[in-house]
# Entry
Amino acid sequence: PRRYATKGFISNCCTFSIMLIGILLKALGLTVSSRWVLAFAVFGFAGGITNWLAVHMLFDRVPGLYGSGVIPLRFKEIREVVKDTMLRTFFDKDYLERYLKSKLATLAGELDTSALVSKALASPEVEGVVERQLEALKAKPEGMLLAMQGIEPISLKPVVLSFVRGAGDELGPLLLSALDPQSILPIERLRHEIDLLMSAKLEELTPERVKALMEEVIRVHLGWLIVWGNLFGGLIGLISIALGYP
# Structure
């Protein structure tokens, strides 16, 4: 039912009804009136039905009409055009660079990096790292020098831990300011990954889904082509009668 409750279908029905009225007027002998009515209705209906067929041929195959069903037939090309357009429009290099920098600045304002670094430095894992490094220091000249002074490197563990953990407040902002998004994920690599993601997703689009997407976007608005085809066709019919053409 929704397929027939469209502006194009209603417009074609109106011009067809006017054409029937014109035929009735001619049958009743009202020649002058019927000429004007029929001219408007026939030309208007011809314009509307032609545009309706053109719209229909975009989405569906019509046996015997070459070029019909272009959207389902060319769905692969349509997928590629959609992907390339989105990459150029939404994921160009300059935009991505600006976006990542702005997001990093926003993130810097929202995150308490000092607290995060301090929390990480206070973890048992960091304590284990310090302990292993002090144990390894024994075999180094510095460790031997400490041993000559009667100091075991491992005994410095509390001092080193206190020093490391105390540096967290200063290290947080310093690490964030030194962070460059492109050093983690270069823009070209990011665009390549987006391209791969979109390609994989678009591969899931079958001809039927591409057709449904295109219909959802443009088919409703294409109904105005039919309405204007009716109106302009009708006007051409009236002008032809006014100029004396049968």
